[in-house]
Amino acid sequence: MYKTKVRGVIIEGNKSYGQITRDILAPIDGKTPRWWFITMGIGTLMMLAGMVAIVNTIATGIGTWGLNNSVAWGWGIINFVWWIGIGHAGTAFSIFLLILRQKWRTSINRAAEAMTVFAVICAGLFPALHMGRIWLAFFIFPYPNTRGPLWVNFNSPLFWDVVAISTYFMASATFWYIGMLPDLATIRDKATNKVKKAIYGFFAFGWVGKATSWLRFETTVLILGGLAAPLVIAVHSIVSMDFATSVMAGWHTTVFPPYFVVGAIFSGFAMVLTLMIIIRKVYKYQDYVTDGHLDAIARILTFISLIMGTAYATEIFIAWYSAMEGEMYTFFHNRIAGDHTAAFWTMVTCNVFFPQLFWFKKIRSNIWAVFVISIIINIGMWFERYVIIITSLTKDYLPANWAPYAPSITEVGIFVGTLGIFVIGVLLFLRFVPMMAMSELKGVLKDTMPAKKKAGKTPDDPENKTL
Amino acid sequence: MKKYWKSLEEHQEIKNKGTLDKKAEPEFSIDGLSQEEVKGKASRRDFLKMLGFTIGYASLASSCEMPVRKAIPFLNKPEEVTPGEANYYASTYFDGKDYCSVLVKVREGRPIKIEGNTLSPITQGGTSARVQASVLNLYDTTRLQNPFENANESDWDSIDGKIKKQLQEISSANGKIVLLSSSIISPTTKKLIGEFQDKYPATEWITYDAISASAMLEANEQSFGKAVIPDYKFQNANVIVSFNADFLGTWLSPIEYAKAYARKRNLEDSKEMSKHYQVESYMSLTGSNADNRYKIRPSQEQEVLMALYNELAAATGVQTYELIASPVDVEPIAKDLLKNKGKTLVVCGSNSLKSQLIVNSINHLLGNYGQTIDMNNPLQTIQGMDKRMYDLVDRMNRGEIAGLITYNTNPAYTYPEADKFVQGLQKVSLKISLADIEDETARHMQFICPDNNYLESWNDAEPKPGHYSLGQPTIQKLFNTRQAQESLMKWAGIEGDYYLYMKDHWESDIFPKQDQYSTFEKFWVQSLHDGVFALRQDEAAQPKFNKPDLKPDNQPKGNGIELLLYETVAMGEGRNANNPWLQELPDPISKVTWDNYANVSPKYAEENDLKNEDLISIQKDLILPVLIQPGHDDHTVSIPLGYGRTSGGRVADGIGKNVFGFIRNIAGNMAYSGNNIEIKATGEKYPLALTQSHHTMEGRPIVRETTLKHWQQDPDSGNELHDKVEKQHVSLYNTPSFPNFHWGLAINLNSCIGCGACEIACQAENNVAVIGKEEVRKRRIMHWIRIDRYYSEDSDNPEVFHQPVMCQQCDNAPCENVCPVAATPHSNEGLNMMAYNRCIGTRYCMNNCPYRVRRFNWFEYANNAKFPYNMDNGLGKMVLNPDVTVRSRGVVEKCSFCSQRIQDKKLKAKKEGRMVKDGDIKVACEQACPTEAIVFGNLNDKKSRVSKAFANPRNYHLLEELHTLPSVGYLTKVRNKKSIDAEVKHESGKHE
Question: Disulfide engineering: B489 pairs with which of B117, B494, B561, B576, CB 3.0-4.6 Å?
Fold first, then answer.
């Protein structure tokens, strides 16, 4: 299916097929490095902190959080939306670029999809944990029951949230896993250890690389991708409905679905950027994740950031245009100015102004600058959710109800815990799963070889026979 | 083995194969199964496995201890008790200060709710927060369960023996015995005390009121020769001028006054309303309702009063006095008063003889006696003369008192020089307390003979002459306590119980005075049933007025900061400090719970760089947090009384600071103010738990207001927005229809005074949890009805608005469509319902409720030692209403329009084969309201009171522009002041 010519070099270093296999499998075959254990330790500690917070929440009650009668959602929902946003990276990245036939995605999509899966796991924790009675969470599933039967409220976006997130999680995980099959088979074939062979063999689903298998494989991936693409849009649109269908000023906004989807892709891409810069540095994958890759992502981010800016401006304009008391107050006295000014301007600066630095090639090609800005974007996106949720709830229609909000240590603990889960997930991924799609890399290798080197060393080298 | 066959086919088969064992191919693979399993038999191993499991599981299941719940059926069912049906008994609440005729709701033998008695001509069905909360005092774990002697539990016989012996010894030695009590209005108790005095002639009865009106008694003695508190008739007053008298919240008889005041101001049937001027130092509940309010220092009161007197005297041609310039321009007040001569009322709340004398003179000048003030029908609920108390403590310290019996009073806490009182106690040989808890005074007593709760006792009351009121027990005594009167009877050697004693007294004393009933039994039964009985009153001429000399005395004037002590709506003199409902009732003005504090004005705070919650020291030894109170006088610090109990019970102790010590003795009267107060910031902070922290409406049309003049010209005035919004209601959806009932609630903002009675009534009716200071501070209060209080922009002397907000039962409810599990659907009677057992606690509904009336159970509030209020112990839980679920952790709750009451009355109507009539169903807040501000009914019935209110041009809905279609309507607030435009012009003129 990879018939179109791509611009530029995707894999540098004049690799052979065998070289790619060796490079990508090096972390799996080699000894576990020390930093891995240290990071794993930190991640585990964070997760344990989260566990303590979760146990505290479930055993004692939501009262352990900083919420109150007026602000009934806080960090729980902020972090839920934030993680879901990050979780858009993988699928958006691989699927949109797959459909658009952007071949430079091949070295990044696997990691991005892995991130998606872990981020969605983290995100999925929050809606469950923030329930007052988590032990009755199954009430939210529409299944025939003896209570009437009593059905869920199909009008509620919260119900569709559950549907969308679980569908999205399953679709992403399946997409990720299916795409991994040829690579798992490669590991199986190369494994010398019996146990390893058996495990990877099991997960490889008996892949032997027959031409028909490849045909089916590529069709499946494309179909799954096609199915998942609308999901990406649906998930965050539905998440945005949680707010848009309400009557609260600052929430009741029709621009929310596209605004949220774009925002999600924005934060997802930023997270991919952060992670890929680390991976390419740690595993010395500069040949695969080239400066060109980073440059491309940075350009996309610049563009999305402009959309974000437009969305913010639209919201503010409509608030003014509507001349509605509550909306005006929320935007002009509680965001642009007021108690939450800092959060609002952090959001704008991080999401709209900083990415504009990518207009300069010098900054785009400075890895450190790109890395820092990618992190800034995710901080900005966190504040975006904070601004939306907290400003509208703390100062709503009746001033008598205005109440401040600050997270409790338990809420912070749960957030730290999800960060830990994410770190652990990524580390396990780095250690046990080929972090780049070898088969796809090999697929684009020939077309993108630097022209002059092609003559010297081709992928058909004898040494590749071992593959 | 022989083979038998049943059919020929079978026979053939047996013949062919020789066996019947042939089986079909097994459906599943039998690889790995043992021989026995293939045959379908259990192996020895399987047998042992099953045996082990069975025994293990059986022992596990049986070893889990199940609590034994005893349910003992009635052997003989009491005639009146039907499980599931409430009985109501008329009774009387009197705590030594507040009087209220009540109905006690009893379910399955337990009193669970107090309602006002509509038959009472005094309280007329009104209640207050304290009255509503009093039922919880019955189930207080702090109550003593046995008599005590020297802090050891004892029994009645031995205690009685010792007390009698000592009383006789003192009597025979000609020693002095003092019965110290708060005001007693029970005619039978008074008679009993008389008999006690007959038995022990050396007994002196002294009445001591911690919050006293003795100056008023004294003034009336001078002016009229009668040491009484007159009957004030606010319903007859066109102009009311109040000087530091919080007559709607705490002063004398607030329920009665509030009712009369609101009737004159509700603008429902009349086009006129009274005009209310308030001159005061702190922002009182009454001041917040005033049409025009002036702030003065406590020491300036007499200057203003004198100025007013002079103005009136000059106009009526009576002698005037020379005076110091008044800080308030009294001309407009005087004009209004003179215009309405004989239909005005001037009252003063301070305990100063001079002030009261001036007020008497003013009222006399205006001809108010016999019109708005009746000297012949005095209020008897406050009788204490402070001089006698001061005198008593001196005598105690001189060792002149041999025996002291305290009844319903707690001087070791409330007396200004409590230490001196306690020292004096050391010199008293016989010390008896009749308190029901081991309070600050009882701690020092030799004997504590715990009194019954009023709900366990027989009693009577005579709040005004000829107005009788009966109290009857509604539950068997919970503990080994004894009614105080019975104790006195025992000691005086009177046989029988107090019930018979009282009945006898009624037969011999009260029955002959009436002419309505022919037999005593009829009279008694009817009075007991009604709870009240009023003798016919004859019109009598008002006593002659003796003109006092009002020459101003040259009081030393301090320029420093002045202090004012006041009583709050919830706490009073601290008697209710152990009642968690009242501790958690937000103060109607400050909205603070669980604490007292020092009120200062915004200007004072700015000048002294003070912020809310800053700790200040007052006269060095008292340290209190600051609360910046708009409308407060700039040179005054005011502090609520009733806090800082040290032996008040597990809820009361350690909350706030006791400030009774600041009371000064001025000419034998307790003055609740002070001069030249030294205040210093300590630089520390102390958290206060407020339920509302933003105080203005931000210009939003939340409470819509107008002035009387504008309203008279245009009844739509102030409410123009309503018609505009009504026209804009467009929907794609069908308008909801409610075939039979459509419940609605109308709130008249002109009647509502913000007193908070509804909040406690709702709490009692609906089992609303108490959550404690920390949680209130986190803004998680559970009240289903709250009263929002807003200030108008001018923080110096703002106008105050009270707005009760409960679930608005929207017909287009935002909360309903967002609940993922459909736990909050709409009923076909227009109710927004809440299914607790379906709720999973996503709190989405709370976020989407623009009124923020939904409450979440952040913790398990019942049966949780972390919330040691009333739902953590068996006794406290007896107050719970069995008709209402106690919500568990993790579910959302909210006002249900008292659906249990609706259901109850609907069933009753059904049984009687009729429709529910308007007024049949009264929701808890409506029933408790002393001012009839809340009306509940069927909106489908166009003749119902609520429909009429909805049709009133004053009616609007809160946030109606959101198209939530609420079933609660508000009637605009109308103030009887100069026009708003004039006011605005005046204001802006001032600023230029």
Answer: B494
* Residues of chain A contacting B846 with CB distance shorter than 8 Å: 69, 72
Across B760-774, average pLDDT: 93
Whether the bond into B701 is cis, omega within 30 of 0:
no
Lowest model confidence (mean pLDDT) among A36-40, B3-7, B891-895: B3-7
Q: Based on the domain organization, do B221 and B206 belong to the same domain?
A: no
> Do B229 and B349 share a domain, yes or no?
yes
CB contact under 8 A, A67 and B695: no
B245-304 confidence digits (pLDDT tens): 999 999 989 999 999 999 999 888 888 899 999 999 999 999 999 999 999 988 888 888
Per DSSP bridges, beta strands B292-295 and B275-280 are parallel
**Does B141 score more than 50 pLDDT?**
yes
pLDDT reported for residue B842: 92
- Residue-number span of the structural domain to which B277 is assigned: 214-379
Which of these three, B361, B379, B397, is where a domain ends? Answer: B379
At residue B29, the pLDDT reads: 64
Q: What is the pLDDT of residue B986?
A: 42
Q: Is B44 a domain residue?
A: yes
Q: Cα–Cα distance between B271 and B287 in angstroms, integer?
A: 23
Chain A residues with CB under 8 Å of B964 CB are: 247
A60 in contact with B, Cβ within 8 Å: yes
DSSP string, A98-142: HHTT-GGGGGTHHHHHHHHHHHHHHHHHHHHHTSTTGGGGGGGS-
Judgement on whether residues B369 and B394 belong to the same structural domain of the protein:
no
Q: Is residue B409 part of a domain?
A: yes
Encoding tokens for residue B246? 């919080």
One domain for residues B282 and B368: yes
pLDDT confidence bin for B992, thresholds 50/70/90: very low
Strand partners, B153: B148
Superfamily of domain A17-134+153-449 in CATH is Formate dehydrogenase/DMSO reductase domain (1.20.1630.10)
Is B692's Cβ below 8 Å from some Cβ in A? yes
Residues 6+ apart with CB under 8 A from B675: B299, B558, B560, B562, B563
The per-residue pLDDT for range B295-304, each reduced to its tens digit, is 998 888 888 8
pLDDT at A464: 43
The mean pLDDT value for B914-930 works out to 92
Claim to verify: residue B5 and residue B49 sit in the same structural domain: yes
Is the domain of B204 the same as that of B238?
no
A66 chain-B contacts, CB cut-off 8 A: 778
Q: Domain extents for chain A? A: 17-134+153-449
pLDDT at B985: 41
Q: Nearest-CA residue of chain A relative to B802?
A: A400
- Residue where a domain terminates, one of B25, B45, B69: B69
Is the confidence at residue B991, as pLDDT, over 60? no
- Count of alpha carbons within 13 angstroms of residue B774, beta-carbon side: 8
Looking at the fold, whether B347 and B390 belong to one and the same domain comes out as no
**Residue A187: closest CA among A210, A211, A173, A203:** A203
The number of domains in chain B is 4
- CATH label of the domain that carries residue B592: 2.40.40.20
Instruction: Please tell me the predicted confidence (pLDDT) of residue B984.
Output: 44
Closest CA to A116 of A87, A141, A143: A87
- State whether B369 and B391 are in the same domain: no
Q: ipTM of the predicted structure?
A: 0.89
- Judge whether B697 is closer than 8 Å to chain A, CB to CB: yes
Q: Which of B306, B192, B265 is nearest to B749 (CA)?
A: B265
Answer whether B715 touches A (CB < 8 Å): no
CATH of the domain at B299: 3.40.228.10
